[in-house]
Design a protein that fits this description.
Blueprint lengths: L1 H15 L2 E9 L5 E10 L5 E10 L5 H14 L7 E5 L4 H4 L5 H8 L4 E2 L3 H14 L2 H17 L3 H7 L12 H12 L1 H13 L5 H14 L2 H24 L6 H18 L2 H14 L33 H11 L8 H15 L7 H10 L7 H10 L6 H13 L9 H12 L10 H10 L6
Parallel strand pairs: 1-4, 4-5
Antiparallel strand pairs: 1-2, 2-3
Helix pairs in contact: 1-19, 5-11, 6-10, 8-11, 9-10, 11-12, 11-13, 14-15, 16-17, 18-19
Amino acid sequence: MSKQVLNTIIQEVKASRYFLISVDSTPDISHIDQLSFCVRYVNNKGEPVERFLCFLDQIGHKADDMTNAVFSVLKKYDLNIDYLRGQSYDNASNMSGSYAGLQAKIKEANPLAKFVPCSAHSLNLVGTNAVDCCTQAVLFFNLLQNVYTFFTASTHRWKVLNASVKGLSETRWSARDDACQSQNKNWSLIINALNLMNNDDTEKTLTRNEASGILNKLNNLETAFLSIFWGQILHRFNLTSKKLQGINIDLGVVCELYKSLITYIIDLRSDKNYEYFKQCAIEKSKIKQFQSCTKRLKIRKQFFDEGPSKETTVEYSDFKNAEILQNEYKDDLSTLFANECVHFRSHLLSIGDEAPKTIQDMCGFLRKNDLIGMYPYKDVSLRMLLCPVSNCSTERSFSCLKRVKTYLRSCISAERLSDLAIMNIESDVTPKTEFDDIINEFATLQSRRKI
């Protein structure tokens, strides 16, 4: 049955012609490393689709081993690497290395297989590095984890708290948002619970000392300020990260989301927003009066060999931009592509506000209005540009891996694991597949009735 489902997916990939790949690995319950292999393509409706193909066990973490595994899967399913137009992995050096990583070795076989690092992973790395470079931020998140550890150490403490606090996670950065939001929401309840245990003579001395230490840190103005400040930032980062993990997203949307976050952070650093956070922190903490020192404006010295500060940008015409893309994909796009792009742009301008804005909307627009024959190479370019911007679908297959290969089924074979996984993950394809011939053949081979 899994082979039947897999054949359906392979036929869709071949019909789409261009495809993209994403791989990632994780250890299973038996401590065997499983490499998840997923493909992305555009269906006949102009919609991007991501499908799981298989698990590969004990491949290794070296780039050469993973490269051989990728080539073997493409050969096994008869997928032409010449039509591979993109690859997306996390930011590990063995995957995204510019010279010896998996993406570089695949680009040696096909230079048109452009590599796009996972946008969600990249955003998480920005948050991680932003925290690590600030000592106060590191101490604040350690305090968040200490509060969670303290109240979850016993059922009595949790009952005294009578609220919910959440801990951090090393692999899932969105957990920091949940922890920060729960602390801001239950700030007064946490303070009251710590005061009760600190002043309760029946509590153990160690418990009272821990409650007193956490309470002193929470009553600081800096802690209150960081709690509000990081709560605002992490909430926006978390919502953006969830958007980046979607399948129906393209590079244009990713750039827009990144730019929106950059503008948002710049706006937060303005004087008016600082005053807002400061007043909220004063109200949250016990400090009623706060006098800020005047900050001296730093002026960067300009050297004699420097030019004007304004950056100059080079603008290309629509024809020039299209020719650059056509030269990159000579085997896929005709020399008529540039003129076709200008015509398509005029077509969209004539529509006005109802014109599609994203790459995916343009693909659907061409199919909905039966314009593929009019703009054939524009359709090809749009399908190639719908490359994966994250490998989150690959990581979602790990959830299925944990459901299929459990403690009681730890000795399941690699082939059976992939078969069960593909029927579970691709649950939208499995019910639509006809299994009558397979059932009849199985019944014939396993028939025990005497003729």
